[in-house]
Amino acid sequence: MVLNLIPITGTYSGVLGLYYFYLIVGVGKSRSKAKLPNGDGSQQYIQDIVAKSKEGNDSVANIDLTRYNNVYANLRSQLNFNEFVPYMLILSAVMELHGANSKFLNGLMLTFTLGRVAHAEFGLKAKDFRGYGRLVGALTTMSGIIIGSIGSIYLSNKACIDGYLFK
């Protein structure tokens, strides 16, 4: 017998996992294109500055910083995703295990997922890392965590809270 304990969280874990893989590949491609073995390019930039100063050239104006922008955007997209998604999946699992309404939980996780995609694709990867997706992603992430946290507290203590409030 197979137990289907948390199908909503399981579904979004898979969707978010596939998107995370896409972000990982993006980091690898951008590092390869910029000829960086690792990191965000800051170490290479420092090495370029040191090399220029050793040549007696104090001007760093001709060092191509844009070479590192795509690496930085992809790396921050991946790292930012990694900072928030695991916690939201835990909140989702707690709520689902405690009987959260499936439409509510699906709506919460769909909004969160779309916000994470907007943050990366239309925020950090936009010109100067300031696309509208950053605001959309930040708002959906923060509201998702707040709603998920309150939902987890309530659903985990529902009998006690309802007994106290509705005597």
TrEMBL record:
SUPFAM superfamilies: MAPEG domain-like. The keyword Acetylation does not apply. The chain crosses the membrane at residues 6-25, 135-155. It is found in: Membrane. InterPro entries: MAPEG-like_dom_sf (IPR023352), Membr-assoc_MAPEG (IPR001129). GO terms for cellular component: membrane. The keyword Iron does not apply. Gene3D superfamilies: Membrane associated eicosanoid/glutathione metabolism-like domain. Keywords: Membrane, Transmembrane, Transmembrane helix. Pfam families: MAPEG (PF01124). Its main location: membrane. It comes from the Eukaryota. This is Uncharacterized protein. The lineage of its organism: Eukaryota, Amoebozoa, Evosea, Eumycetozoa, Dictyostelia.
